[in-house]
Amino acid sequence: MTPEEQDLVMGLVFVPGEGRRNTLDEVLAHFGESDGAALALRLLRDAMERRDADDVEMALIVHAAAKASGEEFLEPLIELFPADWHRGYEDIVSILGAFRSPRAVPTLALATRWVPEYLDWDENRALAVKAIWALGAVPGPKAREVLEGLRDDENEIIRQNALNQLARRGEL
Protein backbone atom coordinates (compact mmCIF):
# COMPACT_ATOMS: atom_id res chain seq x y z
CA MET A 1 0.00 0.00 0.00
CA THR A 2 1.37 3.39 -0.91
CA PRO A 3 1.72 6.17 1.69
CA GLU A 4 -1.13 7.98 -0.07
CA GLU A 5 -3.36 4.91 0.21
CA GLN A 6 -2.45 4.57 3.88
CA ASP A 7 -3.38 8.22 4.39
CA LEU A 8 -6.69 7.61 2.62
CA VAL A 9 -7.46 4.67 4.93
CA MET A 10 -6.33 6.62 8.01
CA GLY A 11 -8.97 9.17 7.03
CA LEU A 12 -11.56 6.57 8.08
CA VAL A 13 -10.46 6.88 11.70
CA PHE A 14 -12.73 9.08 13.80
CA VAL A 15 -10.83 11.92 15.44
CA PRO A 16 -12.69 13.62 18.32
CA GLY A 17 -13.52 17.19 17.44
CA GLU A 18 -12.70 16.61 13.77
CA GLY A 19 -14.62 13.52 12.70
CA ARG A 20 -13.45 11.47 9.74
CA ARG A 21 -11.62 12.91 6.76
CA ASN A 22 -12.81 10.21 4.35
CA THR A 23 -15.80 7.97 3.82
CA LEU A 24 -15.76 4.24 3.29
CA ASP A 25 -17.24 4.83 -0.17
CA GLU A 26 -14.24 7.01 -1.09
CA VAL A 27 -11.83 4.33 0.06
CA LEU A 28 -13.76 1.61 -1.76
CA ALA A 29 -13.81 3.65 -4.97
CA HIS A 30 -10.06 4.21 -4.79
CA PHE A 31 -9.38 0.49 -4.43
CA GLY A 32 -11.98 -0.50 -7.04
CA GLU A 33 -14.15 -2.40 -4.56
CA SER A 34 -17.82 -2.20 -3.71
CA ASP A 35 -17.71 -4.26 -0.51
CA GLY A 36 -15.82 -3.06 2.56
CA ALA A 37 -15.44 -6.55 4.01
CA ALA A 38 -13.99 -7.85 0.75
CA LEU A 39 -11.51 -4.97 0.65
CA ALA A 40 -10.52 -5.48 4.28
CA LEU A 41 -9.93 -9.18 3.68
CA ARG A 42 -7.91 -8.53 0.52
CA LEU A 43 -5.78 -5.93 2.31
CA LEU A 44 -5.29 -8.22 5.30
CA ARG A 45 -4.18 -11.18 3.22
CA ASP A 46 -1.85 -8.97 1.21
CA ALA A 47 -0.32 -7.46 4.35
CA MET A 48 0.16 -10.92 5.84
CA GLU A 49 1.84 -12.19 2.70
CA ARG A 50 4.24 -9.24 2.73
CA ARG A 51 4.58 -9.21 6.55
CA ASP A 52 3.75 -5.51 6.60
CA ALA A 53 2.68 -4.32 10.06
CA ASP A 54 1.45 -0.93 8.84
CA ASP A 55 -0.77 -2.51 6.22
CA VAL A 56 -2.20 -4.94 8.79
CA GLU A 57 -3.27 -1.85 10.71
CA MET A 58 -4.81 -0.37 7.56
CA ALA A 59 -6.72 -3.60 6.87
CA LEU A 60 -8.07 -3.63 10.43
CA ILE A 61 -9.17 0.01 10.06
CA VAL A 62 -11.08 -0.86 6.87
CA HIS A 63 -12.53 -3.90 8.68
CA ALA A 64 -13.84 -1.68 11.47
CA ALA A 65 -15.13 1.02 9.12
CA ALA A 66 -16.99 -1.57 7.06
CA LYS A 67 -18.37 -3.21 10.22
CA ALA A 68 -17.23 -6.47 8.63
CA SER A 69 -18.15 -9.59 10.52
CA GLY A 70 -17.81 -12.42 8.04
CA GLU A 71 -16.42 -15.75 9.15
CA GLU A 72 -13.87 -15.50 6.34
CA PHE A 73 -11.79 -13.32 8.70
CA LEU A 74 -11.58 -15.95 11.43
CA GLU A 75 -8.79 -18.14 10.04
CA PRO A 76 -6.54 -15.33 8.77
CA LEU A 77 -6.80 -13.56 12.14
CA ILE A 78 -6.07 -16.77 14.05
CA GLU A 79 -3.02 -17.28 11.82
CA LEU A 80 -1.90 -13.65 12.17
CA PHE A 81 -2.25 -13.28 15.93
CA PRO A 82 0.97 -15.00 17.10
CA ALA A 83 3.17 -13.44 14.41
CA ASP A 84 5.80 -11.22 15.97
CA TRP A 85 6.06 -8.70 13.15
CA HIS A 86 2.84 -6.68 13.65
CA ARG A 87 1.12 -4.61 16.38
CA GLY A 88 -2.54 -5.54 15.87
CA TYR A 89 -2.88 -7.96 18.78
CA GLU A 90 -5.52 -6.06 20.73
CA ASP A 91 -7.64 -5.39 17.64
CA ILE A 92 -7.36 -9.04 16.59
CA VAL A 93 -8.52 -10.20 20.02
CA SER A 94 -11.47 -7.82 19.88
CA ILE A 95 -12.49 -9.04 16.44
CA LEU A 96 -12.09 -12.70 17.42
CA GLY A 97 -14.21 -12.06 20.51
CA ALA A 98 -16.99 -10.65 18.36
CA PHE A 99 -17.13 -13.92 16.43
CA ARG A 100 -17.87 -15.87 19.63
CA SER A 101 -16.39 -18.91 17.89
CA PRO A 102 -14.96 -21.94 19.70
CA ARG A 103 -12.34 -22.07 16.91
CA ALA A 104 -10.85 -18.86 18.33
CA VAL A 105 -10.43 -20.26 21.85
CA PRO A 106 -6.79 -21.43 21.49
CA THR A 107 -5.78 -18.02 20.14
CA LEU A 108 -7.67 -16.19 22.87
CA ALA A 109 -6.08 -18.49 25.46
CA LEU A 110 -2.64 -17.57 24.09
CA ALA A 111 -3.56 -13.89 24.39
CA THR A 112 -4.23 -14.34 28.12
CA ARG A 113 -0.66 -15.55 28.72
CA TRP A 114 1.52 -13.81 26.13
CA VAL A 115 2.70 -10.23 26.44
CA PRO A 116 4.02 -8.73 23.21
CA GLU A 117 7.17 -6.68 23.67
CA TYR A 118 5.39 -3.39 22.92
CA LEU A 119 2.95 -4.09 25.79
CA ASP A 120 5.61 -5.12 28.30
CA TRP A 121 4.98 -1.91 30.28
CA ASP A 122 1.25 -2.66 30.75
CA GLU A 123 0.80 -3.86 34.32
CA ASN A 124 -2.98 -3.87 33.80
CA ARG A 125 -2.60 -6.62 31.17
CA ALA A 126 -5.09 -5.03 28.77
CA LEU A 127 -4.52 -7.66 26.08
CA ALA A 128 -5.14 -10.51 28.53
CA VAL A 129 -8.25 -8.79 29.91
CA LYS A 130 -9.66 -8.32 26.40
CA ALA A 131 -9.00 -11.98 25.69
CA ILE A 132 -10.67 -13.06 28.94
CA TRP A 133 -13.76 -11.01 28.14
CA ALA A 134 -13.78 -12.47 24.62
CA LEU A 135 -13.55 -15.97 26.10
CA GLY A 136 -16.45 -15.12 28.37
CA ALA A 137 -18.59 -14.51 25.28
CA VAL A 138 -17.66 -17.78 23.56
CA PRO A 139 -20.17 -20.50 24.33
CA GLY A 140 -19.13 -24.02 25.17
CA PRO A 141 -16.77 -26.07 27.29
CA LYS A 142 -13.50 -25.04 25.58
CA ALA A 143 -13.82 -21.41 26.65
CA ARG A 144 -15.03 -22.42 30.12
CA GLU A 145 -11.98 -24.68 30.59
CA VAL A 146 -9.60 -21.84 29.71
CA LEU A 147 -11.36 -19.48 32.10
CA GLU A 148 -11.30 -22.08 34.86
CA GLY A 149 -7.58 -22.53 34.27
CA LEU A 150 -7.08 -18.81 34.83
CA ARG A 151 -8.81 -18.79 38.23
CA ASP A 152 -5.50 -19.65 39.88
CA ASP A 153 -3.25 -17.41 37.78
CA GLU A 154 -0.51 -15.62 39.73
CA ASN A 155 -1.69 -12.27 38.36
CA GLU A 156 -4.58 -10.81 40.36
CA ILE A 157 -6.02 -8.93 37.36
CA ILE A 158 -6.16 -12.11 35.29
CA ARG A 159 -7.61 -14.13 38.17
CA GLN A 160 -10.31 -11.58 38.92
CA ASN A 161 -11.35 -11.13 35.30
CA ALA A 162 -11.55 -14.89 34.79
CA LEU A 163 -13.73 -15.19 37.90
CA ASN A 164 -15.93 -12.33 36.68
CA GLN A 165 -16.45 -14.03 33.32
CA LEU A 166 -17.18 -17.40 34.89
CA ALA A 167 -19.74 -15.73 37.17
CA ARG A 168 -21.29 -13.87 34.23
CA ARG A 169 -21.61 -17.17 32.38
CA GLY A 170 -23.19 -18.76 35.47
CA GLU A 171 -20.33 -21.24 35.74
CA LEU A 172 -18.77 -20.30 39.05
Structure, described:
There is one protein chain. The chain is mostly helical and 172 residues long. It has helices at residues 3-10, 24-31, 36-50, 53-65, 74-80, 89-99, 105-113, 126-137, 141-150, 156-168. Helix 3 runs antiparallel to helix 4 and helix 5 (74-80) runs antiparallel to helix 6. The longest helix has 15 residues, at 36-50. The chain is elongated, with a radius of gyration of 17 Å. The chain starts with a helix and ends with a helix.
C-alpha end-to-end distance: 48 Å
Order of helices and strands: HHHHHHHHHH
Tally of alpha and pi helices:
10
Main beta-sheet annotation: none
Low-confidence stretches: none
The number of strands is: 0
Shape: elongated
Query: Which class do the helix and strand fractions yield?
Result: mainly alpha
Helix content: 55-70%
Q: How much strand content do the residues show?
A: under 5%
Radius of gyration, CA atoms, in whole angstroms: 17 Å
Mean pLDDT rating: 94
